[in-house]
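REVIEWER CHECKLIST
Item 1: Sequence provided? yes
Item 2: Single chain? yes
Item 3: Sequence as submitted:
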Amino acid sequence: MIFTIMLLTSACTSSGAVVGANQSQPTVETEISTDIPVEVQATETPEPTQTPLSTATPDTRLLPEDWKNWPINPEVTHKSREIYALGKEMGINPNAFSKIGDCQNIKESFMGLYDLNRYYLAPEQADWQETIDNFHGYFNRDGKAIEQGLNVAAALSPLQADPDECQAGESPLDCELRVANPSFAFVAFERWWPDVTPPEQYEKYLRIVLDTIMAHGTVPILVTKADNVEGNHQLNYIIAKLAYEYDLPLYNWWRAAQPLPYRGLDPERNDGFHISIEAWTERSAYALGTLDTLWKGLQDNE
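Item 4: Structure as written out by the authors:
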């Protein structure tokens, strides 16, 4: 699928500055300190909310081991219907969504263009405008749980929260859920350091992130990543595994990136992690399609 969309030509740098597409590419961003306690100092950890699928309906989903063949854009799941209904009872904002993760999710590179009218929708995408209008103001926004180098453990640590806008003891994730009160949240934690922390820790903290989001009445949308810096696609497998176990929507960005030049990775930085400026457009467009499918699908089920 090719999207013809005007794109902001900027990228995140270690200083948080924005650079133009015709300027030299920035260096890899400075990571947040990894000196985070093994047991994250999070506020109350909610009880897991995953529930088994109804035995009355045959489970025809692809297994996590086959995640590379999962569709790019997910359909509404049983669990997402439950969470969305809970959120309505709890008073979530039906016009808000959040982006949670590191610098590849900042507004310049991920979905910000839809608030700035710097996009073009193909004829078959014309009805996506309804979704753009409904969530206006949340595309070109960096929430309280987006930061350069923010990893899945740091998102749960009050030590990493914005002291000016977050309450005492709030983690970045808790702060974002309170401030935005979103109906949906894209969850996209990318790079991890396997030589410091094993993938099992990534899974452990991602579970807490998902439990926290669901307990708030917000529908998490898990996102696979284009890179494979950890080897053997361990993190994408974990992401798919939890999407399967929790019955949550998964936006398979890895699959969408495969037909792109360099499989969506930036050949200028050549760090095997950052996606290219051209890939920002595709990643944003497929994310909008995902949000459109889920939002409208859940409205239809009310």
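Item 5: Key structural point noted by reviewer: DSSP finds seven helices and four strands in the chain.
Item 6: Recommendation: ____
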